[in-house]
């Protein structure tokens, strides 16, 4: 990227930056998109260069022009010293855990965490000799009482998976750094457009790029971006583990980034429209959306975040005896909403949330939690679809 273009992008708006980062047409005969470079072996001009690895590209797992372009884009978005690409969002969590934790260490994990992360902690990490404790997402600076002499990592996720609790990230990071802990954050919900973790004291920002950066439900990938202090150890772990992002997937993520800002605006608008409508319904006990004034963490969200994405939950009013039946009836009646995992794509999705693994933030008592991913459809059509679901649940 030319220097004058770099200076222009510094003060540019998010959609302008997304349109122009992670590419350098002058390096590729003027083509606006970087090419997909498929590579394993890279040749060296002579033995001395090979011995010292004294050239930009040395092997396909280390980097290619395609993967490097995507990493450059994420570095720009995150304000990071470096970014690694990994094969999934879960790998984006597990690789930094392996990078920064050793046998005998202790880690604090937010109780509203992504369920596969909890499974990794309770199985692999414990087997490797790492002690784990879970903490309340709303603990803020009170997390200091949970830090032990061997605490090395604090993992945050804001909003929390499925129930969307907001964390005071700055307060947690300030406490963590006083005790020499690395702070990791899963920022998949907000993306760096609506929240930049490193600006709030986070050391390592984690994303399932499967979600909004891709935007089309056809790529599985994760990214991890670190500040200057923790970048070398992250890159070292990636190389040691032999993990890399595929060039074809990187190309498609780059393409998805160009429209991510525009898509997020639509996701946000439609999700808020539907969330506000759900709050008016008698058959809804609560709506779990951080951008609603009724949500407990709303003030922190409003202070720290620049926007909200398209995924949230609500509590369907139901007695314990018929909660599961009502949830299934509601879901089975939907048409535009597909029943599927993941989110961030163009299509709307719904599922019945399982919160049985929680140790602190238990499931709401008023009824089952239904998670909605609001896609790019028209909100009026989605409301009609949800009406059908509510009518079906009412018959139970």
From TrEMBL:
GO terms for molecular function: cysteine-S-conjugate beta-lyase activity. It catalyses: L,L-cystathionine + H2O = L-homocysteine + pyruvate + NH4(+). Keywords: Lyase, Pyridoxal phosphate. It comes from the Bacteria. Its cofactor is pyridoxal 5'-phosphate. The keyword Lyase applies. Residues 1-20 are annotated as: Disordered. InterPro entries: Cys/Met-Metab_PyrdxlP-dep_enz, Cys_b_lyase_bac, PyrdxlP-dep_Trfase, PyrdxlP-dep_Trfase_major, PyrdxlP-dep_Trfase_small. Its EC number is 4.4.1.13. Belongs to the trans-sulfuration enzymes family. This is Cystathionine beta-lyase.
């Amino acid at each position: 990227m030319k220097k004058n273009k770099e200076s222009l992008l510094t003060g540019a708006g998010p959609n302008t930056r997304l349109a122009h980062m992670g590419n350098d047409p002058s390096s590729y005969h003027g083509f606006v998109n970087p090419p997909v470079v498929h590579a394993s072996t890279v040749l060296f001009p002579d033995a001395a260069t090979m011995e010292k690895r004294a050239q930009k590209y040395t092997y396909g797992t280390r980097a290619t022009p395609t993967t490097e372009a995507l990493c450059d884009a994420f570095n720009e978005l995150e304000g990071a010293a470096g970014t690694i690409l990994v094969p999934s969002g879960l790998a984006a969590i597990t690789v930094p855990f392996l990078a920064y934790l050793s046998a005998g260490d202790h880690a604090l994990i937010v109780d509203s965490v992504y369920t596969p992360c909890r499974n990794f902690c309770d199985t692999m990490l414990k087997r490797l000799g790492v002690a784990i404790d879970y903490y309340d997402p709303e603990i803020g600076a009170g997390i200091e009482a949970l830090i032990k002499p061997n605490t090395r990592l604090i993992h945050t996720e804001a909003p929390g998976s499925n129930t969307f609790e907001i964390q005071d990230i700055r307060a947690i990071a300030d406490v963590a750094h006083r005790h020499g802990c690395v702070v990791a954050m899963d920022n998949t919900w907000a993306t760096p457009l609506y929240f930049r973790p490193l600006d709030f004291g986070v050391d390592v920002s984690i994303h399932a790029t499967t979600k909004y950066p891709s935007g089309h439900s056809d790529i599985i990938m994760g990214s991890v971006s670190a500040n200057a202090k923790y970048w070398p150890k992250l890159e070292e772990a990636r190389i040691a583990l032999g993990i890399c992002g595929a060039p074809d997937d990187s190309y498609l993520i780059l393409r998805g980034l160009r429209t991510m800002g525009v898509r997020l605006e639509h996701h946000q608008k439609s999700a808020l429209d539907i969330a506000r409508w759900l709050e008016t319904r008698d058959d809804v006990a609560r709506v779990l959306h951080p951008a609603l004034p009724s949500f407990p963490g709303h003030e922190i969200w409003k202070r720290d975040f620049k926007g909200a994405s398209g995924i949230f939950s609500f509590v369907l009013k139901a007695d314990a005896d018929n909660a599961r039946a009502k949830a299934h009836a509601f879901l089975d009646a939907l048409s535009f909403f597909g029943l599927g995992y993941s989110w961030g794509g163009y299509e709307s999705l719904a599922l019945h949330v399982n919160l049985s693994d929680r140790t602190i933030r238990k499931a709401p008592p008023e009824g089952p939690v239904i998670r909605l991913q609001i896609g790019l459809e028209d909100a009026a059509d989605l409301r009609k679809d949800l009406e059908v679901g509510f009518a079906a649940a009412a018959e139970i």
